[in-house]
Each structure stands twice: as structure tokens, then as C-alpha cells.
Design brief:
CATH topology: Inosine-uridine Nucleoside N-ribohydrolase, Chain A
Structural class: alpha/beta
Strand order of the largest sheet: 3-2-1-4-5-6-9-7-8
Oligomer: single chain
Protein name: Nucleoside hydrolase
Strand content: 15-25%
Pfam families: IU_nuc_hydro (PF01156)
Shape: globular
InterPro entries: I/U_nuclsd_hydro_CS, Inosine/uridine_hydrolase_dom, IUNH, Ribo_hydro-like
GO molecular function: purine nucleosidase activity; uridine nucleosidase activity
Keywords: Glycosidase, Hydrolase
Amino acid sequence: MHKIIIDCDTGTDDAIALVAALNSPDIDLRAITTVSGNVDLCYTAPNSLNLARMLGFPVKVAKGAPQPILRDLHKIRLMDADEAGGLPTHGQTGMGDVVLPECGEPFYEKNAVETIWEEAQACGGELEIVAVGPLTNIAHALMVYPRLKEGLIKKISFMGGAAYGGNTTAVAEFNILCDPEAARIVLRSGIPLVMVGLDVTEKAAVPDEDCEIIRWMGTKDAVLVADILDFMRMRRDEFGGEDTLMHDALALAAAVLPGVVSGHDYYVDVECAGEYTFGHTYVQKDHRLTNSAPNCWVAEEVDMKCFMDWLKGCLEQSKNR
């Protein structure tokens, strides 16, 4: 059983990852920590809490960083909107056109950084973090509690970056671009890392027939996922947005499902200074060109049948509740 915290900026594909995690028999979801990214924290935090409570899960939901360490998140979102034809990729509130009922419950009493520390201690070195938004909360936790780097976190899997190209600028992926300073702190932490970037997530589009299968399952959980997928398939297409890409759910699957992605160990760093290149993940594939040892396992290929079987299997579990 994987003891996991999901750190997220809950928009559309983050929500699908959360539904999968809540239903996975292989995951003990210890907490959800929230961060600004796709949309502001005033949306990402309630989205996470309302989703969990709507589906009947009492998991801790903690509020985290409202802004990156140094960057202007509003300007970065405008760059992302330009890529999507002028409209937010995830809609105004992050959930596309899906409206979650307000649960009326409070957030966890501790903030995201305190919650990560609390769970790291409680799990005795077995805690895994799956980060599917900007890495701001994780970086703050490492700065406030440096003992986290001394074996208290088993692994950090993150959706972000790319060996080649980007989706917000020519060279940068959105999550890393939002807070490259935070990403650099995480990459230099010495904690075992798994990077699930655009090189592999852009190959992880849900086929139309699987969208229909998910809806036919008929549970509240599956219908929510189907509604989100419909927004991704139909509404995004209207303004040239991306397809039903499972960026975040694939990062979760990579953390718990052997063989779903393949890749290699590389040295990875983040550009923080360049005017045009900040947010670029530097992935050194030729070890002869650097004196630095590999610090990150980088996913490069995905077994889509394996992934879709896993995702549908998680949703099937909701029939047993």
C-alpha cells in the first residue's frame, strides 16, 4: 500500500487523478495539499475539498501556497491562455464546466507545509508525494523542515517539465514555468525523484471509446470523470485547446503501477535566469557531458493499455462503496 500525499492545483486532469487515488486499492491517500497554479488557490483548494466530500471521502485537505516563490503567476497564466487561444485551459474555476456542490466543511487545521511534515513523521520514511501542480509547497516544506531530506520522504513523483520543448513557451512546461525556483529546490534535494513530463503525458490521451465506457459505469465518481472528459473533448476543441491528456493521472499511475511508464535516470535541473528559457527543464541524457550524477528518473514512454486498464479499474472500485 502506497502512503501518498497528492499536492495539486485542482483543475480538470488533477481532479481525475484525485478520483483515481481516492478509489485505488493500492493507495492510502494521507492528505491532499493544494497550491495555486491552473487557477488561484481560492478555487484549487475548494475544488479539492468539495470533490473529496462529494464522493464521500474524509481525507485531509490542506491549503498551501497562494503564489510562487518569486514569479508573477498571473503573467504566466496569460502565456498559457495565449497557447490555448485566449481562454483558460481549465475554465474559470479550474473544473471546466463541471460544478461541484459546496460541502461547507473547513479545510484541515494545518497548512500544506505542516501537513507534509506531519505525515512524513507519521509514515516513518514511507511517505510518497505525487505533485501535479507547481512545486511551491514541496519546496517550502523542504526549506522549513530540512529533515525531510534525511529519509522521511520515500519518493517524489511530479508531473512537470520535458526533455524537449514545452506547452506554455517553446521550452517550458506550465507547472515548472510557474515556479522554477521551487522546482530547482526539489531537484537538488537528494530525495528520489520521478519526473513525468510532456515527453510521455502528451502520449496519454483517453480514447473516445474509453470515455464512453467510463460514463457507462454509472457511479458518481465515474460520471464526474466522464463529465470532465467531455469538457476536455468538446469545449476545449472549440478554442484549440489540448485533447483529453492525462498529465496528472499518469503521474499518479507512474508512482504506483510498475511498467506503466518506461524511462531512464538522468541529471535534471531547471533554468531560472534566462529571459526566454526560464522554466526549461535541462535533462542531460548524455552522462559524458556533465560531472553531475543522475538525480531523477525521467519517464519517456507510456503503455497506454496498462494505463487505461488501471484508470478504469480504479473507477470500477467505486461500485463497491
